[in-house]
Every structure is written in structure tokens, then in C-alpha cells.
Protein: Phenylalanine--tRNA ligase beta subunit
Organism: Brevibacterium koreense
Amino acid sequence: MRVPLNWLADYVDLPADTDPHALAAEFASIGLEEEDFFGPEITGPLVVGRVLELVKEEHSNGKTVNWCRVDVGPEHNEDLDDPKDPQPGEERPSRGIICGAHNFVVGDLVVACLPGAVLPGDFQIAARKTYGHKSDGMICSAKELGLGEDHDGIIVLKNLGLSGEPGDDAIALLGLDQVTLDVNVTPDRGYQLSMRGIAREYAQMKGQSFTDIGSPAVAEVNAPTDGGFPVVIEDSNPIDGNIGCDQFTAVQVTGLDTSAQTPFWMQRRLIAAGMRPISLTVDVTNYVMLELGQPLHAYDTALLGEEIVVRRAQAGEKFTTLDDVERKLDPEDLLITDRGGQGGKIIGLAGVMGGADVEVNSETTDIVIEAAHFDPISIARTARRHKLSSEASRHFERGVDPRLGPVAARRCADLLVELAGGTLSPATTQVGQAPEPTVIDLDVARVGNLVGIDYSAAEVTEQLTAIGASVAAGDEGRLSVTVPSWRTDITADVDLIEEVARTSGYDKIPSIQPAARAGNGLTEAQKTRRRISNLLAADGYTEVLSYPFTNSKRDDEMRLDADDIRRQHIRLANPMSEDLPLMRTTLLSTLVELVVRNFGRGAKDVALFEGGLVSTSAGLPAGPGPRHLPGYHPSDAELEKIYASVPAQPYHYAGIIAGNVELPGVWGKGRKADATDVIDTVRRIARTNGIEVSVEADQIAPWHPGRAAKFVLADGQALGHAGELHPKVCENLGLPARTVAFEIDLDALLAQDDLRSWDGALSTYPVSRQDVALIVDAELPTQTLAATLREGAGEELEQLETFDLYTGDQLPEGKKSLAFRLTFRAADRTLKADDASAMREAATQLAAERHGAEVRS
């Protein structure tokens, strides 16, 4: 919120010598943090000048310029165009200045910038030779002085309603010496988006009395009549139980002077506040919005139908807004329409932006002023849905005083009557009713307990009264607080307590180091995440974080089947991007984007991993879950329905390696990543966490059907998959060929028993090793054969390793040879060779029975 300090001084006692930086620090102590300062940008002589002579000169480039003699006052006049040296006592009545604009005549008062001055943008003014003359300064336009975008003509003071004498300081005359303070208004404090709100904060901060210019008890308000412009509220689709428009005020002004211009003082304030002057009627509505906080809209009465109708959009309706963009409407969009007579059209997106059909123009003489109160949620959704943020929507989203409409409408009408010679019609429309004020019961002792300062009941009452609340004493140290209508953010006692702390000054709250609370340290899930992350980082992976949003196109790129459960996404009602409206069901669907981005920026070898949540709509009930108002305590049955409507969000880990897993160097050519790298990564993740996991071949997207492994836990639950990505997936996503990846479900891992604990004694006896090569069917998974050997070998088998795989002409077709090394160790004796051989024979015998394995000699 930009706060011009001279405008703020209209409502509070603001000393003329106020240091804006000191004021910003004071505002920060009550939660209004400084964003920026906009101070004087012009230095040097900028004065009022009177045009004494004007000679139009045509030049060879086809341009006509004015050679002017300008009286800039006795202190600045100097005849530098005269080649002769001036005689003693001779007057120096003017300066010669070249000007290319043609919107002024002899006798006009203009703004002259003299040599030595510096304009916005570090534009330094100096005397210079041009068009055959020495131009000793510049006659200024509004744009050159930072007063607007008008660069077609220079400033003529009479056109701004200003006057002066040659030599007068134009910086002060045009308000270019004023300071504007930009403060950050948090989203829950919409009342601060107005001079009314900022003035109230200043008055309370300084202990000044404050006259509320927006209070119906102070300001003039038109009483509703039967003859006002007809307005009907038809809201058939309330959002979250709230109707879109609960009150609509319409005031009429007739006989406006079409030639009336916005006065300079109003233009200057609008510009300082960050808005562009447009026309008198529009400028007045914007001015009142900035002053009071109530967005307004003016309609040309002659272009309206017989009545205004507030309703929701119908499916398929379209509307062209003032920015000349046709928009497809949603049934949630709240509209302002008309009907009857020549009506029957949409005239505005309520609280966001109007349309061109009934826009006021240079011929408008009669207007209807709209001052309505709209539901913040409805306006916020419409603005985001159409990517159409406006000053009006910004105010409504944050909450507008529901009782402010009649005051703002009358204030706007009075300004138009004053500035455009119109007539205020006594006929006034007011449809709907503002909500009743909120009353909160507050325990005074609770204030001190939460803030850390002992407040008396009198201090609490004083602070709450200063924000506009009505406070009544109750029993046993309690207060009954009626919340002011403009404080839509205050809904509970903790909000009142926050106000007491804020308005008293955050700097008064002591800083006390709390004692560390004894606890159990990290949870088991946190420990597991750290172990996995440390393992992956040590293996050369880099941890990244991707946004959890995706789209159905990514499912197609990853070749997921049409009935794959991973296609059952949760669709966001209000996505950050329309291109990414779905929540991810796998980490790989978003992690691949970061791999592609790294390769796009020149990386050649990438290994990334991420840990995060995924979600799915599978198993959720149709439609939205139950909703309850704040403060309502659901029953057990209602809680079950609420929990049933919340999607499961398991925690996954995923990793991708693209390019070399061992980098080339003096030690060799390096090695490309293959499926075994990520399969080994998952195995070690399970082993590090004391979990038994079996591996079997699988065919599942997005992995290569012949190079993918499925990991199965002891209870039969799937842990995840790893392997090489399908070539078409790599092509679709823009990944290098033979990229490998893994993804596992951490929640499934945590549900297993940790087998790392050891309650026996370590054997001190030596090991005995036996090797065996078995011929089996080529389709038999190595993991299955290894599990059989472990079972047959017995408890004294300490380790089983696969060290060779052979397929070739020396084997029958459809067969392969797998070589295993079996390491045996006994806890109570040294094993003899015969003992180890017997255990090896038992293992191979079981393999022969189950899988038809033959020992290869």
C-alpha cells in the first residue's frame, strides 16, 4: 500500500517535518513493514515560466520547432541568445528555449527546467546548441517530471487548475517534493489497503483521537428509497455456504459536465498511490477506493437495461472484459448483468473487472454508482481462474468493510457533484443486509499468558477500543468484545490477543530463551530418512526438490496404461498453473523435469534423488468431503467421513542416473550407468535399514520390460521398482538413452521389522568357502535360485554371492549357468571341508528338486 504522506496528513496530525524513515520504523513495530520509499526525484532549478515570445521554425528534417523566450523570474532570467555582451545595468528579461510541443501559446504559464537540474532517470539538463539556437533549459511535459505518461504536450498550469508567477518554485507547486511510503499489507488485513485504515493505525500508534471518515455515524449516507435504480441479487450457487453478494448499494448522479477534467491535486495523489489517471468519473471511483477501501464501479445509465442483476455464470457463457479479452466463464463466477429494455447482457465480473458495454465515456452525463460487498473467496477464485488481478479484486480478496458501501457511494457522488457539476439523485437503492457484528468473549488473563506481558483489564480495553472495538466488562476478569465491521480477520479470542500485542508494540515483548524441552530425539521415520539421504548423497546422488504438480500428458510420456492406478490423480481446484492441475502419484513424474533441465544447461552426467510425498485419488469417495464451520466439533461418525475424504500420502524416495556413473579420467574410460546400479542402490537402502528384500523381474512402466526389478518385502508388500527406463520414455521426456531410475515407498519400508539388532555372540572361528555352478532355465530369476540355496544350506551359511553368469554354445538352448560362492561359519567349532561340502550338497539338492538345477562341472 503506497501512502502519500501529504494525503495521510488530511486525516491525522502528521507534523510537516516528519522523518519518513523514522515513521517507517514506527509502522514496522505494529506490523506494517516498509517496502520502499518514493521521495523527491528532481533536484536543481525547476520554476514557473511565462512564454513571452514564440516563433515557429521549420527545419530541413521536416520538423517544426518553437523558439521561445521564457520569463523564468528575476533570479533566473538571462539572455544567452544575444551574441553581444550585455551592457551594465541592462535587463536580462528571459531565457531562450527550444521546444517541440505545440499545445501552448504566448502568455501561458509553463514549467521550465533550467541548466543544473536533474530529472527522474538521472536526466541532467544543460544548455546546448540545437536547431541554430542555444537552448538554455527545457519546457517540461508531465512524463518528463514523472507525473504521468502524457508526452504529447508540455504542462500548461491553467489546464491543471494551477497558477503562479515566473520564478516560483515548481517543485513545491506540483507536489514533487512529497514523500510516499510503501508498506507491506499482509493478506489478512484488508482494511489497511486504504488511507482510512493507515490513518487509524497511525492515530492509534501516536495516541491521537481518530475521526472515522468511513463510519456511517460520521459520514453522510443516503437513506434507501423505493425509487432507486432496480437491483436484484440472484445467487443460486453459494460458495462454502456464503452468498456471493450480501449487500448492493446503487446511487445515481445526473447532469455531469462531459468537459470536466480531473483536478491536478487528485491526479497527483492517484499517481503517488500507484494508479494512472484515466477520466474524471473513473478517477473519482479510484480515489474513493484508495481513501476508504471500498471498490466502486460507475455505469452509464443510458447504456443500462431496466435493472441490474447479480447472479452466477451459466455454463458456456463468455464475457469480454475491459482489457478486451474474451473469457470463458465458470459457474462459480459471480456476474453483474442487466435485463429489461435494451438489457440482457453481462456488464462485469463482480469485484474484478467490468466490460465495455456500459463503460462511462466522454459523452456520459448520467451514471449509476455501484458499491457492493462481495464474498472474498468467490472474488479470489474468479481472479485467479481468469488470471485477472485488479485493485478491486485485491481489496475484496482481503476483506472489505461490509458496512462501507453506502458511505463510499455517497462520497463518490459528492465528489462528482463538486467536480463535474452533477446532481445527486435522492433515489437510492440498497439491497441485502450487512452481517451482524461478531462478539467475542475474552479472558484478560489469557492475554498475558500468551503474549508474555501482564496486561491489566484497563490496558486491554484501551487497546481494543483504539482499533474500533466496543468493549464491555464481564464477570471474573472477562470482557465482551464487539469486533468492528472492517476487521474481518478477527474471528476468535486469539485474534484479539494478537491485536493487543501488535498495537502495544511488538518491540515491547521481551525476548526470553525458552528452556529446551526433554524429548526422545528424532522419530524412527526421521532417522530412516536421514540414513537413506546420507547413503544416496555418499553414493554421488544430489538431493533436489521438485514441485508436486503434474498433468495427464506426463502419464502419457511415461507410457502408463489407461487403467494404471497411478493415473488416478487428485485434481486441484485452484492450481498454481493451469498447465499443472494434478497432484503427482509418483516422484519420478516430477523428478525427470529436473534431470532434463540440468542437461539443457550443459550437464553431461546427472545423478539426482528426491524424498517427498505422493498422493492418489484411488479409494476416495466421490465429490468433496464434509465441511464444517470454524469452531464446530465433529462427532466420531463425522470424523470418520472426514478422514475417509483425505487421500493417502505415502512418502517416497526416487533417484535417476543419466550418463556416467563412474566418470572418465586418468584411471580409465569411466562407465555408463546401467540397471544394476539402481537395483544395487535399493538393495543397500533396505540393508542399511535392516530389512530383508527379495528381487524379481517385472514389466511395468516406465521401465524397460527386460531390465526392470521389483522389490518385495518379507510380508509380500511391494517396496518399489528399479531399472532402466523404457527407450520410448527417454525419447518422450528428452532424457539420454539408457537412463536408469528407482522409486520406493518409504512407508512400506517403515512397516517392516528392523533386523539389525543382534542378541547372539559373534563367531571367532574361521570360515569355509565352497563354489558351485548351476545350470538352470534362462527365465529363472537369480534371486529365486539364491533364496533356494540359502534355505537348503542351513543356518551356518553366512554369505551367498553370485560371481558369474554364463550363456553360450556350451549350454543347451534356453539354459544359463550361474556360479555362487557359499561362505559357511559355525558359532561353536571350526568347520571341516566335509561339513561345508555336505551343506553345499544339501543346497544344490534342494535347487535340483525345485528348479531342475544341474551342477555344471
Q: What stands out?
A: The two ends are 87 Å apart (CA to CA). Confidence is low (pLDDT under 50) at residues 80-91.
